[in-house]
Amino acid sequence: MLRLSNIRVRNVATVGGCLAHGDPHMDLPPVLIALGAYVSVAGSQGERKIAVESLFAGYFETVLEKNELISELHIPAQGKSCAAYMKVTTGSAEDWPALGVAVSLTRDGAAIRSARVVVSAATEKAMRLGAAEQVLAGAEIGERTFGRAGEAAAAEVECISDVRGSAPYKRELVRVFVARALHQALDGTGATH
Description:
34% of the residues lie in helices and 28% in strands. By secondary structure, the chain is α+β, with helices and mostly antiparallel strands. The strands form 3 sheets. The chain has a 4-stranded antiparallel beta sheet, sandwiched between helices. Strands 2-1-5 form a 3-stranded antiparallel beta sheet.
């Protein structure tokens, strides 16, 4: 838990404010997307529900109207799914990440029934990677499958360059850390590293 966000944010921020800020470097959006969360949004036109994965429109942009605020966060019961979040920082542990990866999986014996793979920080917004999810759906659990999912994620993702690294560097991080996050989720450790 000490690696999620930084001490200043952990002591004053709200979950709704974090999401409404639309910062792609925040830790919560990829985790909440992987868990299938949605928000209730209140405004002068009434209330509406938005899946967290549909909340972000771009770099520091959301689909919220000027007179709307996030009033509730809903995280569905996870049942027997397993999940993990990993982030890579290029500076101190409290620095903004160069990459955040969240995964959530359900298994059927030795196979993966379904998967959600989400990246952030290396991209303009937290986003699911459908190609990696397709590689995982129905595949046998193992390093080979994890590697193929990492390759699919790296091929699909559109990384941005910034002070934390170039786009090619971040693409390589995606390839490696998607596979690591999948391994971590299925190992049952699920903690951040």
